[in-house]
Amino acid sequence: MRTGLFCNYENHHQDARRAIQEQVALVKHVESLGFDEAWVTEQHFNESNLSPSILVLMAHLAGVTSTIRLGSAAVLLAFHNPIRVAEDIATLDHLCGGRLAFGIAKGGPFPEHNKHFAIPMSESRAKTLEAMALIHKLLYETDVSFDGKYYHCDRVTIFPKPLQKNIPVYVASGDEQGIAFAAQHSFGLMGGPPFSLERLKNTVAKYRTINSSDSEKLMLARFFFVAKTYEEAVSEALPFICKFSQKMKANAAVVMQNNGNQQQKPFDRNNICFDEDYLIENSIIGDVATCRDKIKLFQDELNLDALALKPSSLNVQKNLESLTRYNQEIRNYV
Q1: I need a surface site. Which of 47, 50, 104, 271 has the fewest CB within 10 A?
Q2: What pLDDT shows up at residue 285?
Q3: Which parts of 74-169 fold into alpha helices (H)?
Q4: 2-333: CATH architecture
């Protein structure tokens, strides 16, 4: 199992320069610890997460690192021109010396994204999958012609071609259409921090009914903090967890209201939930023994390809210390 860092570029102190510098410091730190990967998220219109220009941030990381693989988690393809994304991805693969992994998603319950990019939420998934089909052709073929529902091109060849023969692709989806698309193309899967173990097991099982060649390669992201005691770890991570919970519940309420449902249904804890106790339980937060046991459970149930840790303290120094403790006391025991 590979170990990675999940990068949200949190702006805890309302200081954009500091937020970016602190995230870069975390990436450089885990590279020095021998971590395998750093995964960058795409966020928009959010003063708390400063990663709208995901590929620009990854290009910067390519210049300040030398060994760690850099992954997008994920490019929200419905909001981008796929020809431009293909050009950027191929160029970025050269900039990082072939260390690129390409994760895609339709986007979560963030109504402002769809509103400001003028993409109906009902079209996000279909546009994402069609865009990926076009991008995959553009990366490796010449004179590409494509006639889809949303995208069209006639004899297009992009330059440069990627440095890697095949850039690893990961799809973030629990939807049957997205899972089928990933399985049919032998792409990997991504699971976000709030996704339940039951949901992830169902996703992997559905993938394997279509593609049983061990191609699922699940990258699992989880909120993370390890301390000397369980109580200390939870206390340190709880302010971050509370902020995340409040934001996601508010977004989900807006989505349901826009869909004509004025009364919010309770979250399904076998699927996805944003309650604080649920997030703590489904995260890798606690003392060393607790964190080892949680990782072992995910490994046993999901056959993890990679685990991306999202440090969950509001204090960058404590996050650095927690990641070091993981490397010293957990990594070699799971």
Answers
A1: 47
A2: 98
A3: 82-95, 111-116, 121-140
A4: Alpha-Beta Barrel (3.20)
